[in-house]
């Protein structure tokens, strides 16, 4: 016999509420709410956005974990995509097009944005703050600000500055000598724009070959082009030069892990290892939990191995 609609409504409401609040047992005793598990908060690197984490977020969700990818200021819905960037492209106009948000964006802006996100997410359970590439500079500085709200920091082939002051300083070390990033042609945008600009929609075979070698040499061409189409043309010129150092008294007390990408040609393995070593020397009582994946700079094409590493850190 069909249930009366009012009873069905009550049962459905109870089922929904049961997932987020205290429940009443058959004996009428209210049980304590079950605490939420950790939430992975993912912070992208240069020219990225939250969409670049979509495969990883899906893999974490399928494994039963919560994940939230952040769009840093001037990225994602606020990204700068001039008409001249669309097809057919007008490269002269693109080189001179303003970038209203990113021209004024500093590392401090990124940090404030992510701190606000962490504060909100931490109301619902522990936070695992994950940064990829230049996103490592942001999560380090967030660790300086709110160490009590972060259960763990995770660096995915990411910049972790302790002795070295900035991302640019990291690239000036001997360990960065083999990086292929300078081989990717950048647009000659006027310095007054306050951004670095790359035409990721270029069809030039030389550009595509250089970008693939630096970022995703292990990918097939179709997978690489799919990844490339999530990139944004502009990145703040200030963020890589700003002070990104972690303070041992704050950032240094948060448990942390580093996932080395052993085939990374953008942040060479030698540079990754130097940053790990300098961080461990600064906080010998709280060393990196180091894991390794055979992956290029964009990470493994199949997100499941990375999701397994992240969930294995819990």
TrEMBL record:
Short name of one Pfam family for this protein? Abhydrolase_6
Q: Which residues form the AB hydrolase-1 domain?
A: 40-304
Which species expresses this protein natively? Answer: Actinomadura namibiensis
Gene3D superfamilies per record: alpha/beta hydrolase
PANTHER family referenced in this protein's UniProt entry, alphabetically: AB HYDROLASE-1 DOMAIN-CONTAINING PROTEIN-RELATED, ESTERASE_LIPASE_THIOESTERASE DOMAIN-CONTAINING PROTEIN
Q: InterPro entries annotated for this entry?
A: AB_hydrolase_1, AB_hydrolase_fold, Sec-Metab_Biosynth_Hydrolase, TAT_signal
Domain of life, source organism: Bacteria
**Any idea what this protein is called?**
Pimeloyl-ACP methyl ester carboxylesterase
Instruction: State any single GO MF term.
Output: catalytic activity
